[in-house]
Amino acid sequence: MKSLQFTSIIKIRGVNPYILITKEQSEEIKPAWKKPLPVLVRINGKPDMPWHINMMPSGDGSFYLYLHGDIRKASATKVGDKVAVEVGFDSEYINGPQHPVPEWFTSVLEADPEVPKNWEALIPSRKKEILRYFSQLKSQEAINRNLAKVLNVLSGKPGRFIARSWKDGI
After folding, report:
1. Fold of the domain built from segment(s) 4-89
2. How many whole angstroms separate alpha carbon 94 and alpha carbon 89?
3. What DSSP designation does 94 have?
4. Nearest to 68 by CA among 35, 39, 101, 30
5. 127: Cα within 13 Å, side-chain hemisphere
6. Cis omega before residue 47 (within 30°)?
7. Whole-prediction pTM value?
8. Are the beta carbons of 89 and 29 closer than 8 angstroms?
9. In this structure, what are the phi and psi dihedrals at residue 20, rounded to the nearest 5 degrees?
10. CB-based contact 52:90 (threshold 8 Å)
11. What backbone phi and psi angles, to 5 degrees, belong to 46?
């Protein structure tokens, strides 16, 4: 992986740990990029296979490199730690959901006419987030519990699902 290497301190924005990638650093990774930037990341040399992350633009040419809990666990790091960062452009990035829609979800999408309409209206990144979450569910109990939650919010009722407040199906 051809990458930019530097040291930085893990900071927090709201509840999200991140490393700020300056405009100058982002230009070394991918010049003139303005939208979410797909990168491969290692923190303190971990994980062995670089982690796929989309850096988020801050609006001034710099980017937020949000650090998922798995990458922080693999690198044994936390907010406030000074870390070695290795980040490079992910030229093999494929946009859109990476996880299939589970059969147990597909089979109930028609339960309420609002549910499929609201599912289709979700932005691709939200669908991707939900499908990634679904792919990690192990027990039938967890599947049933989360299926009830997602059907509730997609039907337009207010509620919470995947750490978000939902209203009117979005």
Report:
1. Elongation Factor Tu (Ef-tu); domain 3 (2.40.30)
2. 13
3. -
4. 39
5. 17
6. yes
7. 0.60
8. yes
9. -80, 125
10. yes
11. -120, 155
For 62-102, what is each residue's pLDDT tens digit?
Answer: 999 999 999 999 999 999 999 999 999 998 877 666 788 89
pLDDT digit of tens for each residue in the chain (170 aa)? 568 999 999 999 999 999 999 999 999 999 999 899 999 999 999 999 999 999 999 999 999 999 999 999 999 999 999 999 999 999 887 766 678 889 999 888 877 888 999 999 988 888 888 999 999 999 999 999 999 999 999 999 999 999 889 988 88
For 132, phi then psi, to 5°, come to -65, -40
How far is the C-alpha of 90 from the C-alpha of 112, rounded, in Å? 39
3-state DSSP helix/strand/coil percent for the chain, to nearest 5?
A: 35, 30, 35
Start-to-end CA distance of the chain, whole Å, equals 38
Using the structure block, give the residue that is written with the tokens 């730690």.
81
Dihedral (CA of 139, 142, 144, 147) sign: negative
Domains of the chain, residue spans: 4-89, 103-166
Please compute Rg for the chain using Cα positions: 18
